[in-house]
């Protein structure tokens, strides 16, 4: 396709409509290392590269849209989390962020554990050789079948989410002649999202058992009475895309408070606490996430301090980062199909995917950035909205971003930080085929989840 100029659209900051952007970046060709994985750069011809491979070559070989996952970056993040917490703690990767058999193997090799929350995730983990004892099973409504499989294969822990589930898991384990290690998930009355946290009244959601009103203490009482389960600790997960440690501080204090209550009432010190995941990543240059070693230091200090005050032995800590490991490791590569300038508003750039490969913008009003990837451009910045090909006006991938004004059909554009909750939440809306995930490392690219085909779609449609 030719790069013909299109009618002049909105270009300059002084004519821009309201939106989620500040000023255009100084250099549209620059790739902020905060939002791109570590092996991403630009070749001398201007094309974006990952692991030394130009995206133009990747697009030829694998097509678009496609997710490209930087294996080196993924492994480095695993190692950073593992080393930050050390041998005295456990890091569980939250599989729901993105799970495939290759990823399970990398996690295993890097010494991480794995959270799953469905039979499908459990099957993926086991089929790639993750030892069952390194798997934690989550979810607010695990089916009897899922519980039975989890107990039978011997998962390291099941995180109990309700009074009914305490009994259900205990009975199933007893029937199978097992004693299942469990944690109880509590809601500490803190909810944290993005840059803020709220410390009251957030018991009004479906997960966990509230600490308030003594409910969690009652859950511990019940769990301790049942033979089929062994209560090893308390679990808390306060939210997602969190940048501020204040929410964890309150959560840790309240969980340790429960441990002290349990000690006073039952004379036992539960050996573990799990503080969940939710650590934020940079989707745009405005985000400033903490490093794993800073997070580990802060959490260890908080827990030690609270335990000292309560005269408790410091329990073994676990954390469950999902997004913070896989989010920054991948970008989505799209081909531009149409460019539609709306006078006085912005220019709509349509790509060959959309809400079926990234629902986060439509679902959470998420922010992303985007770069022209197949070439460098010195054209002036143009306010753009990157939209998909679905029959839905909310089908937006990037709400507001600057692209060079000469963007044209056939150009490749890349949206960084799409490793988490994009492929895992992908759909077949409009019978669009879900994109592949391609792992790239040291100059080599290989498909780890293949592109869906029309045969795949038709195979499920049994007429
Ligand atoms: C979703 C979830 C996580 C991971 O959250 P991220 O924001 O991806 O780090 C960890 N633990 C539990 C229980 C979760 O539900």
TrEMBL record:
Q: Which PROSITE patterns match?
A: ODR_DC_2_1 (PS00878), ODR_DC_2_2 (PS00879)
Where does this protein hold pyridoxal 5'-phosphate? Answer: 278, 320-323, 421
Q: Could you tell me which residue ranges the Orn/DAP/Arg decarboxylase 2 C-terminal domain spans? A: 330-419
Which Gene Ontology terms cover its molecular function? diaminopimelate decarboxylase activity
Protein EC: 4.1.1.20
Quaternary structure, from the entry: Homodimer.
PTM N6-(pyridoxal phosphate)lysine: at which residues? 96
Pfam families per the UniProt record, alphabetical: Orn_Arg_deC_N, Orn_DAP_Arg_deC
User: What is its EC class?
Assistant: lyase
The family assignment reads: Belongs to the Orn/Lys/Arg decarboxylase class-II family. LysA subfamily.
The record's InterPro entries line, in alphabetical order, gives:
Ala_racemase/Decarboxylase_C (IPR009006), DAP_deCOOHase_LysA (IPR002986), De-COase2_C (IPR022643), De-COase2_CS (IPR022657), De-COase2_N (IPR022644), De-COase2_pyr-phos_BS (IPR022653), Orn/DAP/Arg_de-COase (IPR000183), PLP-binding_barrel (IPR029066)
Question: For substrate, which residues are the binding ones?
Answer: 323, 360, 364, 392, 421
Q: Which UniProt keywords apply?
A: Amino-acid biosynthesis, Decarboxylase, Lyase, Lysine biosynthesis, Pyridoxal phosphate
Q: What is this protein called?
A: Diaminopimelate decarboxylase
Q: Catalytic activity, per the record?
A: meso-2,6-diaminopimelate + H(+) = L-lysine + CO2
Q: Supply the NCBIfam families for this chain.
A: lysA
Would I find Lyase among this entry's keywords? yes
Task: Name the gene.
Answer: lysA
